[in-house]
Structure formats: structure tokens, C-alpha cells
Write a structure and sequence with these properties.
Elements: E1 8-13, H1 21-35, E2 39-43, H2 45-49, H3 63-74, E3 77-85, E4 88-89, H4 91-99, E5 115-122, H5 125-141, E6 145-146, E7 151-154, H6 170-195
Parallel strand pairs: 1-2, 1-3, 3-5, 5-6, 5-7
Antiparallel strand pairs: 3-4
The structure holds flavin mononucleotide.
Length: 199
Amino acid sequence: MTAATRPFIVGIGGTTRPGSSGEKALRVALGHAERAGARTRLFGGPELAALPLYAPEKQERNEAEVALVEAVRQADGVLVATPGYHGGVSGLVKNALDLLEDLRGDERPYLDGRAVGCIVVAAGWQGTGVTLSALRDIVHALRGWPTPLGVTINTVAVQAFAPDGSCTDAATDGQLATLAGQVLHFARATAALRSGVPA
Ligand SMILES: Cc1cc2nc3c(=O)[nH]c(=O)nc-3n(C[C@H](O)[C@H](O)[C@H](O)COP(=O)(O)O)c2cc1C
């Protein structure tokens, strides 16, 4: 990306459950990014479920794996949404992140140079907090830059989404907008630094 072009933001997350609140949160955040000028691509529950279990000795990749790896390779920023499952990131989301090992040999390895906005949905405050912390540690391990804000949604305490996926809670919507804005700000700032053109 150059400062004059539209940043490409990839969203990864949610669950296979119809009506997944994590996937809804991700869609809302990606919508904010689009309205702020980004191009986006979502890898939600169905796309993540099409990924085989990551196996380090296996070289073959199916269509779903290639699509995810290539999208993240091209990405200027990333949003990740996970449910808190038993105090941590869900296996579905972690499996997708493990596949990013394919980016190890890239000029920008893993999530290098990209801001990553983290979203956690869980049924309790403890679950949201510990899972956000774990997700940020994973992003650090992948050389990504977690944004200052991480969004946590307690799905029992807050009815944040309507069945159609729209965000009905102003505070949650505002946080998802801020999160998307922080990812975009970093993408534009790093692109400007690379090109020498002010953001
Ligand atoms: C297997 C499993 C484990 C869970 N573990 C936790 C947990 O440790 N802490 C918590 O607060 N919620 C836990 N939950 C609740 C989910 O995080 C919560 O329902 C979340 O909103 C599900 O995401 P989704 O709406 O995207 O499917 C668990 C749910 C499942 C199915």
C-alpha cells in the first residue's frame, strides 16, 4: 500500500455457531474500516472451519489455506476476533493463526509491521480479560502490533448485536470503530514512512 491507496484489512475470527457474536463484532469493525476508506476481507466461522488442523510436517495446502495465507500476506492491518473458550483463544481461531507459520520466510514475516486489533467475546468479564491478554501475547509472538485498545464484549451482560448483525449497543459500536481506526492509522502511518509521503 502507498499512502494514496486504500489499506487492505483482513478480519479473522468468530465461531461456526450461526449468529456468532464474535463474527458479528468482526463484521461491524470491518464495516467501520470500509467507511474509513479500507478494502476488507473476512475469514469468519465457515472459512476457518474449512482449514484442516495445522500440521507442521504437511506441505500441501488446500484452497482455504491458500486464501487465508495470501490475504494476510497482502494485508496492511488485521482484526482478530475470538471467543473466550476455557480461559483462552478458541481452537478454531488458534488453528488459523498457527497457519501463519507459512509467512515465516516472507520479507514481512508473520504479522510484521501490521497493527492487529483484538476482539474477545465471552460469557464473563474474567474470560474476556484473560483471553484478550492471551490473544495479544500471540500477536506479539507473530511480530504484530496489538492496538492500544482491545475490545472485550461480555455477551451475557451486554446484548450488543441484533439478529441481522447490526450493533445495537452504542458503547460497543464506538469501541469497534476506535479499534478499526487504530488499525487504519497504523497502516497509513507505516505506509507513509515507507514512501516518504506524509500520512
Ligand atoms: C467450549 C466453550 C468454552 C467456553 N469457555 C468460556 C470461558 O472460559 N469463559 C467465558 O467467559 N465464557 C466461555 N464460554 C462462552 C463463550 O465465550 C461465549 O458464549 C461467546 O460469546 C461465544 O462466542 P460466539 O457468540 O462468537 O459463538 C465458552 C463457550 C464454549 C462453547
